[in-house]
Amino acid sequence: MKKIINDPANVVPEALHGFAAAHSDIVRVHLGPDYIMRADAPVSGKVAVVSGGGSGHEPLHGGYVGAGMLDAAVPGPVFTSPTPDAVLAATQAVDGGKGVLHIVKNYTGDVLNFETAAELAGADGIEVSPVVINDDVAVEDSTYTAGRRGVGGTVPLEKIAGAAAARGDDLATVTAVSQRVVANVRSMGVALTACTVPHSGEPSFVLPDDEIEMGIGIHGEPGRRRVALQPADEIVAGLLGAVVEDLPFQRGDRTLLMVNGMGGTPQIELYLAFGIAARLLADRGIEVSRSLVGNYITSLEMQGMSVTLLKLDDEMTQLWDAPVHTAALRWGT
Amino acid sequence: MKKIINDPANVVPEALHGFAAAHSDIVRVHLGPDYIMRADAPVSGKVAVVSGGGSGHEPLHGGYVGAGMLDAAVPGPVFTSPTPDAVLAATQAVDGGKGVLHIVKNYTGDVLNFETAAELAGADGIEVSPVVINDDVAVEDSTYTAGRRGVGGTVPLEKIAGAAAARGDDLATVTAVSQRVVANVRSMGVALTACTVPHSGEPSFVLPDDEIEMGIGIHGEPGRRRVALQPADEIVAGLLGAVVEDLPFQRGDRTLLMVNGMGGTPQIELYLAFGIAARLLADRGIEVSRSLVGNYITSLEMQGMSVTLLKLDDEMTQLWDAPVHTAALRWGT
Fold first, then answer.
1. What is the CATH number of the domain that holds B279?
2. Chain B residues in contact with A264 (beta carbon < 8 A)
3. Which residue in A180, B225, B239, B250 has its CB near the most CB atoms, within 10 A?
4. Residues B112 and B258 in one domain
């Protein structure tokens, strides 16, 4: 295992220390329990938006804390759900009196621990509304999940929910637009290589030099099938076809197209893939009106990519375009 | 070789096609010769800023084209200098009548080809001022270079030069502040793994599983020495110590600290390294007043990182903070 770390057991707190040092204008970091919150939280009279999950997917979620997006992010150990007490502490810290939206990726541990935290927060007088994201079309159940996994769609969900909260929507309204994102977003990914969790020291799986895993999960859990390494045209067609046909997206739809790197794939390949995806969508009469290309939800140093497609309406487009000021997404400020 | 590509010979034009599709609000891409220019170029009455070099270092340089930074970027083939005619065409395309600054990383091919292009532009009536960046403290000469290599310092140089041009400075003034950046910025990098150029198909070098290369170049060219894999504390201390002692940076200096990923290193490791570097600088009484953490000048999928430190004055700080709207850096707009 080759990593720029000290003790594998301290990777997350040491990284959080650095994150706090780099972005002290945007966030404050609390250690024990660990959470990242907006520097100006709680924002009184605003619905708070909280997300979280295992670390190793950076910039998700901490990179999305700031004005116009998340009020807090709760990072667990690498690929391990945060505890209920950490989610509760973050929820209490950012509650501004108008309730808290929990954005939860559909993994068994995350769902259970956020549920427990929501119950405890409720007993404390804080109204919590959960939204579970399950956009991965690749598989129904997996090592970590009952039902579909939450993957790339989490990024536009957090942006749009955060913008709705920022403009003053109440908890029911923020929840409703968030559920509309969940209903209209689909994703699928591919791995070219595995990744290595620091405290295990061993690759999460073994992939032969001439094979790729279509439908990979963001923890390296199995996908749909292993196939021989293909040209980019075929890889992208495979991912995008599954995504488009699932919703299904249709001629005339306006969409946000996100081509996401899993952490170890060069930008030159992500842009090449974006070009292919945009052309294939044009062939189907589907408009790409917003785009995002880069490392936004990763699996440590895994080489690979995912395609996320969100069917936009006018309101979602406005909320996507609204100002945001976080470590990983920033515009309008 | 596992990459998301089609024909290895077409990687750069296919990636440029995708880049144009993803960022049509910011850039236009010209193919044959290849260059990326601001969508609103030429900007009349403004000094134009042009950079370029081999591809494979993305987001450098195309990701920095846009308002407040570069007017054009000229991408060569992967790790190969752009031709003089491509640099000339970009220079002509963005000239707004006030002259053009060429930002050139100190590699033999880049320097020669930008010089030739500048002569040809001069014959065409365009005044060109070159600034050569050579911030790498690791080695004096290398496979690609006479003298020191240009590496991470290129990013703040392009930002600050672009901001000076945007506020209306004339060519001599933009050149002077650019030279002040070059005089005050130092960098050094480390590789944990090699990278593979698509058209070669083989790793650029071989690094044993238990060794790292301190002082690596951005093309995978040799550094100062190979050493056993070390804890992050020692890696960062080694890089930062060489950087600090070279200028030298001194107690009381205000600085921009950039911790840059080489393309294949997870953000969690980069933030961990940033935290160490910030602490070591605080121990020396050197203030980190601005920071940048992420993949900003890369070597394809190489795992590794570099540390760049720029000694700031008030004017450089203002120019760093000025609005920028590019694919890879955006604030204030």
1. 3.30.1180.20
2. 263-264, 301, 303
3. B239
4. no
Q: Do residues A141 and A274 both lie within one domain?
A: no
Contact A274 B22 (CB under 8 A): yes
Residues 165-204, chain A, touching B (beta carbon < 8 A): 190, 192-193
The Cα–Cα gap between A83 and B251 comes to 42
Residue A218 near residue A191 (C-beta atoms within 8 A): no
Whether the Cβ atoms of residue A147 and residue A160 lie closer than 8 Å to each other: no
B331 assigned to some structural domain = no
Show which of residues 208-267 on chain A sit within 8 Å of chain B, judged by CB atoms. Answer: 209, 212, 229, 231-233, 235-236, 259, 263-267
Contact A21 B266 (CB under 8 A): no
CB atoms A273 and B22 under 8 Å: no
Residue A79 shares a structural domain with residue A169: yes
Q: Return the residue of A nearest to B25 by Cα.
A: A290
A4 found inside a domain: no
For A24-62, write each residue's pLDDT tens digit: 999 999 999 999 999 999 999 999 999 999 999 999 999
Task: Tally the domains of chain A.
Answer: 2
A146-168 per-residue burial string, b: 16 or more CB within 10 A, e: under 16: ebbbbbbbbbbbbbbbbbbbbee
Shared domain for B178 and B198, answered yes or no, is no
pLDDT one-digit tens code per residue, B290-317: 999 999 999 999 999 999 999 999 999 9
- pTM score, whole prediction: 0.98
Residue B19 touches partner A, C-beta closer than 8 Å? yes
pLDDT digits (tens, 9 = 90+) for A150-197: 999 999 999 999 999 999 999 999 999 999 999 999 999 999 999 999
Contacts with A135 (C-beta within 8 Å, 6 or more apart), sequence order:
A148, A150, A151, A152, A153, A154, A182, A185, A186, A187, A308
Structural domain harbouring A18: 10-184
The reply to whether A5 falls in a domain is no
Domain C-terminal end among B165, B184, B203: B184
Q: Catalytic annotation on A199? A: no
Residue that is last in its domain, among B126, B153, B184: B184
So what's the ipTM on this one? 0.98
